[in-house]
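ok so i was messing around last nite and threw this chain in just to see what happens. nothing serious, just curious
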Amino acid sequence: MKVTAEAARRFFVARHFLAPARSLAGGLDGVLEVFRRFGSIQFDPVAVAGRNHDLVLHARVAGYEPAWCEVLYERREIFEATNKALSFVPTSELPWFRHVWGRKGPRFHAAALAENAAVAERVLERIRLEGPLSSLDFERATGPTKDWFGMPENAVRAVLEAYTVQGVIGLARRDGNLRYYDVVERLLPPEVLSREVPEREQLQHKLLSRYRAHGLLGAGGAGGTFDRIAPPRSTPERVGRNELLEELVHLGSLQPVEVEGVRGKRYVVDDELSMLQAPPDPPPSVAFIAPFDSLVWDTGLLASLFDFDYVWEGFFPPARRRWGYYVLPIVFRDRFVGRIEPRIERNEGVVQILGLWWEGGFAPQRADGFVDAMRDALGAYLSFADADRLVWAPHLARERRLFPAQP
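result:
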């Protein structure tokens, strides 16, 4: 199937629930609808402008409140697992996420338990007896396990993570960024724990989950899109993701398409093919996109299809940043039109707008419907941030006058 660039852009924003933004009914049902389509949402604890998963949901669910996701977590309808990165996934899908359940891989975590056996035994016994505990509930212990930088790692943290990889314990709750762990028998339904899925089927599911989350990926993915699934080519020891992709196409789960101006085949989830064939006309609506939103995973596609150069600069030193630290792309209709850098000041009840950059050739006042849509988006963001007003940086006086907003 061949599609025009315009059809692909319209499809892409529509299947991401952004035509219009915040279009899903509010409440838990709206949140679950996003999980049903995407399969998972990346978690990141940095909350300068809102945590990543909250921003993802805010862009799509009307009146989204972070407490809604917390409720689903407390009910065990969603759970944490590694899928590209630490992510929330529907609890019903956990049997398909047990393979390589962890950031560093099963070999690392098996060694962490073996090398810190006494600590591991003590930690697990206390959790079984006392219920949810955090690393701070134990005295720091040293051992041979090293962190990412080759420095000695707190053995308690190492064994807590290792036990989560093995599915022995799971995250019971968070207090800020502090994690509390409990044994999985007290966290998950028995039918989820008892279900065993063959490893190959798990790998298929994980690969499909990345296509579900993005909606228009190519065979090679982008950046770390396919991390922790499989290498590209099969070997006698393990299946490769190219073979897994062929199987998903053969099963009818994915459909290959060619997009005007985009190199290589793209793959669309089968039940979204009709939307690609007749994408809706996007109304005048504005969304602020989270840094790790699956919409922006494939920066090459953003460049070729949207003419948008996207690099998240949070990892860059300040001197190398063209824009800012926690900057959110702005989507209007079916285009990326700019970037905004908000900062939530919770103690003061305000949102600071530190920067606002428009794409070349985009004039806010000349774009039909944009000014009103931007005001709506800023008002919705104020409500999301539980703030009363916007505070604009001095150099944004024109934007302050153009976009007054109230929650």
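not much to say yet. The domain at 286-402 is CATH 3.40.630 (Aminopeptidase).
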